[in-house]
């Protein structure tokens, strides 16, 4: 779905009264009469055009249909107020024609601007169409929620589990940055995207890096945030390239603009199982329990021999003949033991298993 279709557009200038901004969202990407053409680049004056999506919207792809007058240097910027802009993409090698720009992370913004710094040999720049998409498709299930998590807690209240409890009203406090947490997904997954929500107060931003590993030893950086975008309840979403697989995910908080603290309110992960056995399992040769020696039932004789061993170690071997042990099942399925006088002056102890005896 083209999120820009029929949305309002605003430009820095128009070459004529009929090559106007609104034509870049009319759905016509090839007609010579349906395009925006800017005013001239004079005295290093830059030209731009932005689209108002109408509300804050998530997207990760921008598609530009250039007329012959294309920009060779331009950037994609986003904003929520059409005043303060953040650059999310820049190129110095604009080729013209149809350019599909896949952003490094999912953006959440209302306004999207193409800011042209340099034109080609033509005096202006011109676009047939601007299309905006959210191309990410994930499994919809947060595979990190409730999994095992490790790291440092600054205090008991704001503990690690808060980062994967599904509640944006709680958060993990990792103390002074740099500080990290790590999640064990328990299986190897082909990762589609990750979403990180830091502590939100409207005045702070964070820098951090995300690393992935199959074996908990060798890690690769798979995502990074190093811009000054404020922390929001939507968080930062990173679409991962095909082929990123991991069992262990580590987030390293490197900076907080408000103070020295490291915070994460929620760490969400999306992906699908690969069926691969984690390298850590291979390294230590983990077998199915049924295939091990421990799966064989312990016999009554083995149990009684262990009990005699305990008597020998705790009381002395001379006391072995003082006792008479027997194992009998209990009909109500409860553990029990019973002590009574046995034959030949021995102490008789009966129970349903070795632990009871």
From TrEMBL:
GO biological process: carbohydrate metabolic process
Name of one Pfam family that matches: NAGLU_N
Highest taxon in the source lineage: Bacteria
Annotated organism of origin: Clostridium tarantellae
Residues covered by the F5/8 type C domain: 1-135, 136-272
InterPro entries: BG_Antigen-Binding_Lectin, FA58C, Galactose-bd-like_sf, Hex-like_dom2, NAGLU_N
MF terms in GO: hydrolase activity, acting on glycosyl bonds
Keyword set, alphabetical order: Glycosidase, Hydrolase
Protein name: F5/8 type C domain-containing protein
